[in-house]
From TrEMBL:
Matches recorded under PANTHER family: METALLOPEPTIDASE, PUTATIVE (AFU_ORTHOLOGUE AFUA_6G09600)-RELATED, PEPTIDASE M20 FAMILY MEMBER
Protein name as annotated: M20 family metallopeptidase
Residues of the Peptidase M20 dimerisation domain: 186-278
UniProt lineage: Bacteria, Bacillati, Bacillota, Negativicutes, Veillonellales
TM spans (from-to): none
Name of one Pfam family that matches: M20_dimer
Source organism of the structure: Megasphaera hexanoica
Amino acid sequence: MTDVKKLVEEYGDQIIKNRRYLHAHPELSFQETNTAAWIRDHLTKAGIELMPGITGNSTVGFLKGSQPGPSIGLRADFDALGLTETNDLPYKSTNPGVMHACGHDAHASILMAVAETLARHRELVRGTVYFVFEQGEEFLPGGAQQLVKDGIMDHIDYMFAIHVNASAPLGQIDIHDGVRFAAVGTYDFKIRGKGGHGGFPHKANNPIFAASELVNDIALIPALKCDPLANCTVSVSYLHCGVEGVANVIPETVSMGGCVRVLDTDLRQSVMEEIERLGNSICAAHQCEVKTTMVYGYPACKNDASCVSIMQDAAGAIGITVIDCPPSLGAEDFGYFSEQKPAAVAWFGMGDPTGTHELTPHHNPKFYLYDEKGLPLALEYMLSVYLKAANTL
């Protein structure tokens, strides 16, 4: 039996150094050229072959074992967010206005540690293991979509990932069987009527009335067009028109839009189509022109039962407490992978359990991870997941 703890000890504190380097040098979605170069350099130096034909900054390395086995994919994203870090840390962001506030720096360092460890111990590899480093997870349409278009899932039988969770203490992991995250879509309407003077509304065609009807009717979609047991939210998130304080000018244009989140990708399709239908018909009824933009974002992310079982067993074997949280209307572009092949992503607690640092939400300028013990435990966990999957599936 492989002594995974010994492998982690052998790797030392390099995983912490790597994460802190990446944290200090964040890059926005689809702009991660330096991070991608860092990843490719480390993989190449480890003797890991890079897969050709991968678009943009995404990078896929792979190792082939001498023994037969499945093709296992392990995924990490590595883009950052447009936030200004307020933590006073020696490794705080050196890129003004950009911060790793969701833990993607940790994901990349964990996967790199797994890759370098397996490269040193190729006798542990069965079949082929793919190290999938994904650009642009935070920004629609998401880096995973292009990786699927590049054909990565034609090579992979099963895909696994963890997402660190700064809001949950170290030693706890959420692994949910079934749909875990929502399908997401966005919509935007550019409505044009006819501007005019407030004293002569009959000579104008106020587009605000069309927009007002749309706000009300879009908000009713979950109640009137969806199964009452379905989890669906439709938000109107912005409405821009007129000039504040100028009361006697009827505007010519209105811009409005929002988002859809639902746990069923097929239901998202019908909800988005209903929003588009309402936009076109209501604006036509008010004799307004409308330019409609519908963006179909990440599909629902569904965890496969066999992959969930692997991840649960691996957690139990190293003393991590497994919990099962209900599905969330948050979104994760890992759903593109889970549409193609059996896959699972788990939420890995990495908040400080000592209370020295408060547990923090994600996408927050004070985002903080418990590196010293959390990263080595995450490495132990992902190595355990891979070994269990390679020897079981």
